[in-house]
Amino acid sequence: MVETAAALADRGWQVTVTLPAPGPLVRELEKTGVTVEFDRSPVLRKSALRPAGLLRLVAEMVRAVPGSVRQVRRAGTDLVYVSTLTIPLWVPIARLLRRPVVVHVHESERNAPLMVRRLLALPLLLATRVLVNSRFSLSVLTDSFRRLGRRAEVLYNGVPGPERFTPPRTELTGGIRLLFVGRLSPRKGPQIAVQALARLREQGTPARLDLVGAVFPGYEWFEQELRETVTGLGLDDAVTFHGFQDDVWPHLAAADALLVPSQGDEPFGNTAVEAALAARPVVVSSSSGLDEATAGYGGAHRVPADDVEAWVSAVQQIAADWSGHRDRVLDDERTARRRHAPEVYREDIERRLAGIGRRAKA
């Protein structure tokens, strides 16, 4: 969202960004020069799948309609851009007011029940255009409604690299330094990283692990369980919990390899791209958008998500052929900069949105 807002503001668009509530995005958005407002448009949650939750969602949407309509009219909106599937009201509001609406899809859950996927995708049938962040995300949408394939286009994320590049170490003195970046949750798989570390050390491969990320409210039990696992495996001196960090680049600079052990579908895999931009080998769960995100990178290993021994083997391969991996990831860094340069994304998104706006006025 921030990259898109910056792209439009830099090119002279008057941009008003509407959020459901204050949060860390506000400061980043305001830096781009856009106007930030708040609207209590309801957010789709899992509770909406239950009868009582669905009734509550419908009631919230009805109450939100007048305020959302006023907001679109007050801003003098020519085009509505929605950056998520989970705030569905803006699509029918835009169509009601005869504004073109573009939905940019960053979510995909192929393993979710078909009813859930169709509920999420239903508003897209009203959209003027749908942008998706990967071919995998597109396939999930068309599995729900085949006709969406006619109005959807793939647009890969722009991913900024580090301000200061730190090349990988020439030697793995003291052992390999592993890094996990992401939410601490069963779905993101930090438990797999911890188990792999334990097996590596048992097998004589010196290694340590840094965990960068925090839990969502309500998942504190998982962090406690993870810490107890670390202690139970005798890894307190080899695992560091850093919590949430705004800037992950210093941690990537200090690491030798990144682990992305997601246990569920990922629509793309920005974290894996960040590993390439930092010139670090990456091991990812072989599924969904992670395969797509790491395609063509010589320093990437793809392994079954829940096969701890496969994760161990991949790390051992990296350590055993460190010189070769070092050469490959330096090539990967150049490839990633070409593929995901923010300036390329900004030009592309602005061109696509401008074209839709012009056609709507014609």
TrEMBL record:
Glycosyltransferase subfamily 4-like N-terminal domain segment(s): 2-159
Domain of life according to the entry: Bacteria
Pfam families: Glyco_trans_1_4, Glyco_transf_4
InterPro entries assigned to the protein according to its UniProt record, in alphabetical order: Glyco_trans_4-like_N
Keywords tagged on the record: Glycosyltransferase, Transferase
Molecular-function GO terms, alphabetical: glycosyltransferase activity
Protein name from the UniProt record: Glycosyltransferase
